[in-house]
Automatic annotation (TrEMBL), chain B:
Belongs to the radical SAM superfamily. PqqE family. Its cofactor is [4Fe-4S] cluster. InterPro entries: 4Fe4S-binding_SPASM_dom, Aldolase_TIM, Elp3/MiaA/NifB-like_rSAM, MoaA_NifB_PqqE_Fe-S-bd_CS, PQQ_synth_PqqE_bac, PqqE-like, Radical_SAM_PqqE_MftC-like, rSAM. Pathway: Cofactor biosynthesis; pyrroloquinoline quinone biosynthesis. Catalyzes the cross-linking of a glutamate residue and a tyrosine residue in the PqqA protein as part of the biosynthesis of pyrroloquinoline quinone (PQQ). Keywords: 4Fe-4S, Iron, Iron-sulfur, Metal-binding, Oxidoreductase, PQQ biosynthesis, S-adenosyl-L-methionine. This is PqqA peptide cyclase.
Length: 88, 360
């Protein structure tokens, strides 16, 4: 993964809001991922257009204390869970 | 209080046009007249969503055998659930699939019996294989992600390379290669299904190489042949932890196979609210967490990894569901499994498959 990589939600996965858990969630064939606020913001930006660099800048604007390293780690975790795929 | 469940396995019916000798459905299949009706399933889905369920697996038997399947899909999807259709593919037409997808099917899991038609149809007991090829084409054409599921056993394990190639040709996003779990008809047929150690040793590197080669294209999930292992397969994510099953007649089960545990008091959605059953029933609390465990599980480092293995298997092989899964090398009953392997993987006369009894 480089700052130019473009993450997107993988086909078949869907972002939703769970009223019961009062959290954003990702639904995919194997399971469910409950997202905290930062993760939800990152997933929201995994739209197949924004690069890792873009996402890091946008998040730094919206959330104080979010480091580029945190964003990279989060996307890596989402990739490992098979929820996000990377182009480039 | 227990955490909320994420998944509901809705076994809509036990009726099925196939007669797979490895089927995990119980020997005593629920009859059509005992099935929950449309309104009762709607209520199950409503209650499940309110309880926290976000994923609904519509399975069976063959879910396409329910005429109200489109309404059931629409109801579950309308609640915001991810809807997974688990099917043999028989009865799936272009028209039906388009309708189901427009009502909210998110994902299709299609079972395949073997790499070639003759072998597959022998295991299924009917001509099914060609329908599956068509069904896979329909699913990929409409653009819904496809998982192919293959149950592995002595009669198809040698064809694992061919099965992987078939799933690739079918356009699967995922392939589950699941060694047979011995419940229901599969237990009945165990002596005809147990693979040999040599077969597994030959298949393992083929699967591992394909996992490497196809990374990023087709994910391959391999479920171990537990009788041959030193550690059991985990009991889901723990008993009563993440998922519940509702059987065709409304029985609410912590695990799809749990009807085999003869002394488990099973509740029914016809009599009790789903939330009460999930949180307070004897059946769901019986093996929740780790407090119920005995030695050797009680003091074992793996107790949060495999939860002591399968309760249903412990009951079937030791007559007490609270025992350590006898597959475990630390279990005092491991000898039972070794005897079964010795006797059943190399029978003197190859036993015939007892085909799942068709519904009548
Ligand atoms: C019982 S079937 C019902 C749905 C549908 N009739 C089908 O076969 O896909 C549900 C899933 O369990 C798998 N299955 C059936 N018997 C099994 C067994 N003994 N061990 C492991 N998986 C099994 C099937 O391949 C299928 O993916
Ligand atoms: S495993 Fe075979 S017999 Fe059992 S429900 Fe599925 S298709 Fe029918
Ligand atoms: S003793 Fe129990 S917890 Fe430990 S590995 Fe065996 S089954 Fe798992």
């Amino acid at each position: 993964m480089t700052p130019e990589s473009v993450p997107r939600i993988r086909p078949g996965a869907r972002v939703s809001y769970d009223q019961v858990r009062e959290s954003a969630v990702v639904l995919f064939p194997e399971g469910v991922l409950v997202l905290n606020e930062t993760a939800a913001a990152v997933v929201d930006l995994c739209d197949g257009r924004a690069t890792i660099g873009d996402i890091t800048r946008r998040l730094a604007d919206d959330f104080s204390g979010v480091e580029p390293r945190d964003v990279v780690e989060l996307v890596e975790r989402l990739v490992a869970r098979g929820v996000v795929v990377l182009d480039g | 209080m227990a955490e909320a469940p994420f998944g509901l396995l809705a076994e809509l019916t036990h009726r099925c046009p196939l007669r797979c000798g490895y089927c995990s459905n119980p020997l005593e299949l629920v009859r059509r007249r005992d099935e929950l009706d449309t309104g009762q399933w709607f209520s199950v889905f409503d209650q499940a969503r309110a309880l926290g369920v976000l994923q609904v697996h519509l399975s069976g038997g063959e879910p396409l055998g329910r005429k109200d399947l489109p309404e059931l899909v629409g109801h579950a999807a309308g609640l915001g659930c991810y809807v997974n259709l688990v099917t043999s593919g028989l009865g799936l037409t272009e028209e039906r699939l388009a309708d189901l997808v427009s009502r909210g099917v998110d994902h299709v899991q299609l079972s395949v019996q073997d790499a070639d038609r003759a072998g597959a149809d022998r295991i299924a007991g009917v001509r099914a294989h060609d329908h599956k090829l068509v069904a896979a084409d329909l699913v990929t054409a409409i653009g819904v992600p496809l998982t192919v599921n293959v149950v592995l056993h002595r009669r198809n394990l040698d064809n694992v390379a061919g099965l992987i190639a078939l799933a690739e040709r079918m356009g699967a996003q995922r392939l589950e290669l699941a060694n047979t779990q011995y419940y229901g008809w599969a237990l009945r047929n165990r002596a005809a299904l147990l693979p040999t150690a040599e077969q597994l040793a030959a298949a393992n590197p083929v699967v591992a190489a394909a996992q490497d080669r196809l990374r990023g294209t087709m994910e391959i999930v391999y479920v171990i042949a537990d009788y041959h292992e030193a550690h059991p397969k985990p009991c889901m994510h723990g008993w009563g932890a993440r998922q519940l099953t509702v059987a065709p007649d409304g029985k609410v089960l912590p695990c799809p196979a749990a009807t085999v545990i003869a002394d488990l008091e099973v509740d029914n959605v016809r009599d009790k609210a789903l939330a009460d059953i999930w949180h307070d029933s004897r059946s769901f609390n019986a093996y929740r967490g780790t407090d119920w465990m005995r030695d050797p599980c009680r003091g074992c480092a793996r107790r949060e990894v495999d939860f002591g293995g399968c309760r249903c298997q412990a009951f079937q092989l030791t007559e007490d569901a609270a025992n350590t899964d006898p597959v475990c090398s630390l279990s005092p009953d491991r000898g039972t499994v070794d005897l079964i392997l010795a006797a059943e993987t190399r029978p003197v006369v190859e036993p015939a498959l007892v085909m799942r009894q068709a519904d009548r």
